Amino acid sequence: MLAGLRRRLSRRLLRDPDYGFLFEPPPPGEAVSIDCETTGLSVRNDDIVAVAAVRIRGNRILASERFQATVRPTVRLKPDAIKVHGLREQDVAHAEAIAEALPGLLRFVGSRPLVGYYLEFDVAMLNKHVRRTLGVGLPNEQIEVSGLYYERKYGDAPPGTQVDLRFASILANLGMPVFDQHDAYADALMTAMIYLRLKDMKARDVRVPRERARPAAWYGGG
User: Fold this and answer.
1) DSSP 8-state class, residue 108
2) For the segment 107-132, what is each residue's pLDDT rounded down to a tens digit?
3) Of 115, 106, 113, whose CA–CA distance to 136 is shortest?
């Protein structure tokens, strides 16, 4: 109920009625897997350098229906970020601004739920620019794959169980192929694959196997 009230308020605050489609019911059974690469890890001080999205329909990834853009950030790239995604200043210097890429991204996503890995960060980075354009943030439902994975693997775990939610660990545990990580499109594609695998496991009430805890060694005195 509260979420519905927030959506209605956001729609009233929408500056551009051409984007009213963001608040329409999503196409049944569809979602969009999305990923951003950034200049760093601060929502306040960093910016987007690449964004990619791929559509999901039912149990299929529509790899041919994708959005992909390299964008020119408003701040300089941090060395640690360059090591992660490999995009350098010269790679983004002549790219389009996020404000130019945003309309295409919003129309591609539409009102579909967003699927992502640590999606909250990506949406926060996008919303810095979405709010400047529309006056409101993205109203889309958000589906966090690390949360889905946690439920399937650790939902019934005893207290003290070590939890590992790293992207590479999730892929390995689910037996998924690994593409070039920290490429926006590859990450969006792998995230979509994780989502569909976990969705299927939940439908069949199958859990991700959990390693058995090793009993503590006992040493007798002597």
Assistant:
1) H
2) 999 999 999 999 999 999 999 999 99
3) 106
- Residue keyed to tokens 């003290």: 160
**Would 134 be classed as within a structural domain?**
yes
Q: Is residue 184's pLDDT more than 70?
A: yes
Residue 173 lies in a domain: yes
Is residue 80, in this structure, part of any structural domain at all? yes
CATH number, domain of 125, equals 3.30.420.10
Provide the domain limits for residue 113.
29-153+162-203
Note whether residue 15 is domain-resident: no
What's the token pair of residue 69? 């853009």
Output the six-digit token pair for 88: 């350098």
The model carries a pTM of 0.89
Q: Please state, as a whole number, how many other Cβ atoms lie within 10 Å of the Cβ of residue 41.
A: 13
What does the alpha-carbon distance between residue 84 and residue 36 come to, in Å, rounded to a whole number?
12
Number of domains within the chain: 1
Separation of alpha carbons 196 and 51, rounded Å? 21
d(CA 21, CA 42) in angstroms, rounded, equals 30
Q: CA Rg, the chain, in Å?
A: 20
Q: ∠ at Cα 191 (55, 86), nearest 5°?
A: 105
